[in-house]
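User: Hi! I'm a student and our assignment asks us to look at how structure tokens line up with a sequence. Could you show me two examples?

Assistant: Happy to help. In each example below, the sequence comes first and the structure tokens follow. Example one:
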Amino acid sequence: MKSMIFGGIGRWLAVACAALAVSTAQAQSYPTKNITVVLPFGAGAAPDIALRQLAPYMEKKLGHAIVFDYRMGGGTLLASKYVAGAAPDGYTLFLNGFSSVLAPEVNPAVKSNHTKDMVHVMPIAVIPNFIVVNADLPVRTVPELVAYLKANPGKLSYATPGIGTGAHLQLELFKQITGTQMLHVPYKGVETLFIDLVSGRAQVAILTYSATRAYVEAGKLRIIGTTMPERLKSLPEIPTVAESGVRVEVAPWVGLSAPKGTPAQVVATLQQAVQEALAQPHIPARLASLGLEPMTIDRAKFQQYVERDVENWSKFIKQSGIKVE
């Protein structure tokens, strides 16, 4: 009996060791084929633009193509759930971001935050956000907006790409801090959002520079402040919201994440590819011209950064009662 038991254990150990050896060999030879990055955003959105600046250099380092797979829907949950369930082999990655890790927190139907639990490989960029108003609104600064809102409570509406998005959370925080009222109007697509914002049906929004630049230059929209903690080197004329005493300080980020259980050696290979791409001499200036900033913290700090974002904003979400109905 003992020999049969030990024989069974021996066979189990042999199989386990063989599987481990195969897994290790695969990690050491990684990559051997194209790598798919799943995006919960549409083509042309700021995160997509950021990754596209780095992709050619990553491909050169990795020796294989970066394939962009757009899976929009469910407030980024469709894409993140797909990646979380993919094989942890480094061939299916997620273009993660500030809104993505918080999407599960505003949806009562989601029992666990699988986005937070991913392996956060490397940050790519910070995507500065700006408070934007319709050009016909008689405000040019954050203090003027606050004064207008207090004089006209509930008369203005603010547009966002959806409930629980970064823009929604930041403007809800803005309302709480300033004691003002605005009607939230969530949109399913940014095209409709811009149509209403430019026409004046909605008057306020938080958007990226790349998305609003053409409208600002055409005199249709006006940027009155950035929610970044500091003024941007590329746009020093735009004040921070915090300068007016409204402590809304947010640095929305975008980075690559992989399914939980992805081998450390695979993660290290991906990390090095991103680092070398960000180190290209012209990349910082190129990102800055698009209203983006390179995010150069290491992987360990990135992991902490993501966890801190989830912890802090989850508390705000619960306190504010923000949720997808």
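Example two works the same way, sequence first and then tokens:
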Amino acid sequence: MTRIAKLYAAVLANPKTAITFAEFERLLRATGFVLVRIKGSHRHYDVPQVFTVLPDGKAVKVYLVRRFLEIVDEHGLHVEI
């Protein structure tokens, strides 16, 4: 199992898992999210819909992880290894 797959499994098991913003970005790219633009601190990713991420310190906010998991579930995305 790759590092990104282990990270995805950990987040899936517990969305409150503390992950860094860099890990979260790797997870976004691995599931097919594409960075379309950066405006200030806002990073806009696109899959079937726009997902805006606000990096705030080192750790990612829990609501962003939960929203990410909702989008992955809604659109049937999976981790590309």
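Here is something you could point out in your write-up. Residues 3-75 form a domain with the Metal Transport, Frataxin; Chain A fold (CATH 3.30.920.30).
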